[in-house]
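chain below, 574 aa
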Amino acid sequence: MAVYALTGFSLVSLLSFGYLSWDWMKPGLVADVATDPMEKSLPPTFTRPPHIIFILTDDQGYHDIGYHGSDIQTPTLDRLAAEGVKLENYYIQPICTPSRSQLITGRYQIHTGLQHSIIRPRQPNCLPLDQVTLPQKLQEAGYSTHMVGKWHLGFYKKECLPTRRGFDTFLGSLTGNVDYYTYDNCDGPGVCGYDLHEGEDVAWDQSGKYSTFLYAQRVSKILASHSPKEPIFIYVAFQAVHTPLQSPKEYIYRYRSMGNVARRKYAAMVTCMDEAVKNITWALKKYGYYDNSVIVFSTDNGGQTFSGGSNWPLRGRKGTYWEGGVRGIGFVHSPLIKRKRRTSWALVHITDWYPTLVSLARGNLSNVQGLDGYNVWPAISEGKESPRTEILHNIDPLYNHAKYGSLEDGFGIWNTAVQASIRVGEWKLLTGDPGYSDWIPPQTLTNFPGSWWNLERLTDGLRKSVWLFNITADPYERYDLSEQRPDVVRTLLMRLVHYNRTAIPVRYPAENPRAHPDFNGGAWGPWASEDDGEEREGGREPLKSRNKKKKKCKICKLRSFFRKLNTRLMSNRI
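prediction:
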C-alpha cells in the first residue's frame, strides 16, 4: 500500500515530509572529511611539470556519487575525492558539446559559436579551427597528449579530428551516442553507422568490447609505454553513463533490489565506471606516475532523470539551466595539493581548467587572448579565494523563445523571451525557457515514474520568463526573488547585455546528406574536403560497407523512443 501511495505525492507533500530539506552542509554527504593536521603540510616541490589525467563522465547526475548520499556504490571516486579536494561550487554546461568545447578552449560557447544545442553527426560543423586547444598548449609545453573516449566536437573535415586538434593519439567515438558493445550509432531511421576510431582510422577490430573497459585498458597501455620522466596529458572522456543503458550483467546483479529498471542499469554503469577509474589509478602507481600527477574528475552535465540519473536535491535535469543541469560533480586528487582532504566552496567553472592546467604545465598563456577561464589552482590547492566571481551559463538566441517573455519585462534592455542564465556572486538569473523545472527524487521504486509525472504537472500554467535566486542561501532554487529584488534583476540583465555584445554568430548549419555512413564504408567519419563550404551539398550512390556487411543499428528504436518521450516532457515545461 505504501508503494502505491507514493504516486499521489505532490511537491507540497515532498516538502512537508522533508524531502527537500536536505542540509547542504550535512556531514557525511559533502562536508569535510576529518583532517589530520599533518595533511596540511606542504607537498613535494614541483620539480617538473605534473602528469595530468582529466576524467570526464557523461550524464552522471549530481546525486549519483557516494559522497553525495547516493545509493550507488562509487568507492574509488569517494576515496579519491576524500583524499583530495571536493569542488562543491563547481559548474558545467547542461549538455554534451558545450561542456566539451569550453573545457578544450577555455571559452564560453558564445565565443565559439556553439551556443545552440550540440553538434549533430550530419552537420558540417566542428570546434572552430582558429581556436588553440588545451592539448595544443600542452604540446607546446612539452607534453605527450592522448585522448580516450567521446569527442563530440565535430568531424566533418579531417581538420576537425582529435589528432588534428592537439592529441598525439586517439581511441574513441566521434559522435555523441554509441552502443557500448557494437559502437553503432543511429542519427535517425536508417541513418546508422559504426563509430569507434583509432587515430583517424575506423577501429573495426575493437567491436564487441565494452567501452568502459576498453577505454580504461587503453589508458593503462599508454602509461605502460610512456616514460614517467616525461610529462603526459590523458583526457579520458568516458561514454558512461550516457544512454543506451548497457552494463555487464555482474554489475547489474549488485542492484537487483532496485525496483526501477532504468535506475538499476544506470547504477551498474556508474559502478563499472568507478572500477575503471580504480584501474587507471592503479596503473598510475604501477608505472611510476602517481607521485607527480594531478587527477581531475568532472561530469559533463546534469543527469537525465528519465534514463536513471538523479540530481537530487537540486532542481531540474540535463538540458536545463536549473542547478540540476549545470552544477557538476568535481574533485581534484593529487599528492601535489597543499591542503588535502577538504571541501572547497570556491566558484569554479569548466572553462577554468584550460588556464589552470596550462599554468600547472608551465605553459605559455601570454599569447592566448580572450579566455573566459581563470587559473583556480591556488583556490584548489591552497584554499585561497577563487578569482572567479561570475559565470555566464549561456545565451542561446535560437532556442524556442518563451511565450510570456518580452523586452518590457527586461526593463527595455533585454528580451526575457530569450533563453539565458548568469551567476554573479551569490545571485543567479534565468530568462526565457530554462527547461524542465521540478525536483525529482531518486527513482528507486518500481512505479516511481508515475509520481514524477505528477510533479511535472505542478509547473503547468506558470506564466514567467524571469527568475532570480540567491544560490548561496537557496541552492535548491525554491524561492524566486525576482519580484522582491528588481534591482538585482536589472543588474544581472545588464551583465547579459554586456556578454551578448561579445558573442559571435551561432554556428548551427543544416545537415548534409553526404555525412551518411553509407558513403563512408558504413562508419561515421569526415566527408568534406578542406575546400568544402558548410552549405555545399552533394551526393553519390552509397558504398558498401568495407570489411563487414551493413549492420542494423540496434539502438535506433530506443533513440526514437527517448526522442518522443523528451518531446512529451518538453511540451510541458514552463
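The CA atoms of residues 197 and 203 lie 5 Å apart. The chain is about 25% helix and 15% strand.
thats it, cya
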